[in-house]
Amino acid sequence: MTSRNPSLSVVVPIFNEESVLPLLARRLRPVLDGLGEPYEVVAVDDGSTDASPVVLAGLRRGWPQLRVVRLRRNSGHQAALTAGLFRARGGYVASIDADLQDPPEVLVEMLTLARERALDIVYGVRSDRSTDSTFKRSTAGLYYRLVRRLVGNTVPAQAGDFRLLSRATVEALRELPERRPVLRLVVPWLGFPSAEVPYVREQRAAGSTKYSLSRMVRLATDSITSFSAAPLRVATGLGVGGMLLCALMVVFAFVAYLRDSTVAGWASLYVAILFLGAVQLLCLGLLGEYVGRIYAAVQGRPSYFVSSDTDDLFVSSDAADLVAVAAPAPESVDGLTDRSAGGAPLDGSVEGGPTDGSVDGAPVEEPVGAGSGAPVARTGGGAASVARSGAASARRGRSGTRTAG
């Protein structure tokens, strides 16, 4: 069972990583155990379709600090990362991918730097990406140059989602109204005190990358449209340029007409129509991106749904123990429970529930989105309500027994 107040939480988004999870545990656990402080590892299973849930369950049996949060469906890397951040309880919250390209050993350096300099954010910055393919390095470099030009130099170059956040930073993120935040842009935008720790990016330990070209394009599009109105200004510029070109063509046609040198031809007309049509479609597409984001915000749908959290199961078990203590057995007559007086069964269980002293019902699935509150464990019966009903039944039972006598 994880500590209720860990010093450090490590969030690991996972999607179909069955082959790398044992390697991750072998490298990450010694690093965290060496801290000598309470910690938790929040593994967010983003709707994996392979054996990742089974592997995580096996790892939990020998690693009590491991906590598994499973999402109902595949919601995306950023949504899984957000879910882990908002459910983590540590004073500091770190995030790291499961592929071990970001070395877990750097976490100690990041935590030490944050404490020594009273920092709220420590970024892991890739100083060497030679293990990545040429295509990956070139597209990543283009992405960071474009983002820094549009958003500003507050975004660290070559800094992904390997970072350390203070509790104050996590709570500030929780207050933001965005439901699909791009964290590598939102976190620098907060403006909290920060620093960088360089590291050498390693090769993927096992498995294959889950960031396809389409996912990278989607990330770039979300990054630009969520943080800058520059594309709209580009559309405006294209529209103005198209109008000026059309005006020049009108002047040219008018002069040609006055000189009686007009020649019937379709090429110029064809090119002009194609150019104007392309400009209009591009402007409509850019507007559509922003309208789509507005539409998604108005709908207010959560960006992810939590299916289960292993920590909630422990909370339910603790609540059951509380019920057993808080609800004393009522008085009985002739060795039988006075059911007419509202008494409880003699075996100490809640009437209508299990007889092993546990609270019936599994943790209630709760939809969670960006900006949601801290996770609250709820059980089907409710520990407090069952305790109150048990105590009330005991009072009614004693009253009924005295009246009968």
From TrEMBL:
<dbReference type="InterPro" id="IPR029044">
    <property type="entry name" value="Nucleotide-diphossugar_trans"/>
</dbReference>
<dbReference type="Pfam" id="PF00535">
    <property type="entry name" value="Glycos_transf_2"/>
</dbReference>
<keyword id="KW-0328">Glycosyltransferase</keyword>
<feature type="transmembrane region" description="Helical">
    <location>
        <begin position="234"/>
        <end position="257"/>
    </location>
</feature>
<protein>
    <submittedName>
        <fullName>Glycosyltransferase family 2 protein</fullName>
        <ecNumber>2.4.-.-</ecNumber>
    </submittedName>
</protein>
<keyword id="KW-0812">Transmembrane</keyword>
<comment type="similarity">
    <text>Belongs to the glycosyltransferase 2 family.</text>
</comment>
<feature type="domain" description="Glycosyltransferase 2-like">
    <location>
        <begin position="9"/>
        <end position="171"/>
    </location>
</feature>
<dbReference type="GO" id="GO:0016757">
    <property type="term" value="F:glycosyltransferase activity"/>
</dbReference>
<feature type="region of interest" description="Disordered">
    <location>
        <begin position="332"/>
        <end position="405"/>
    </location>
</feature>
<keyword id="KW-0808">Transferase</keyword>
<dbReference type="InterPro" id="IPR001173">
    <property type="entry name" value="Glyco_trans_2-like"/>
</dbReference>
<keyword id="KW-1133">Transmembrane helix</keyword>
<feature type="transmembrane region" description="Helical">
    <location>
        <begin position="263"/>
        <end position="287"/>
    </location>
</feature>
<dbReference type="InterPro" id="IPR050256">
    <property type="entry name" value="Glycosyltransferase_2"/>
</dbReference>
<feature type="compositionally biased region" description="Low complexity">
    <location>
        <begin position="384"/>
        <end position="405"/>
    </location>
</feature>
<keyword id="KW-0472">Membrane</keyword>
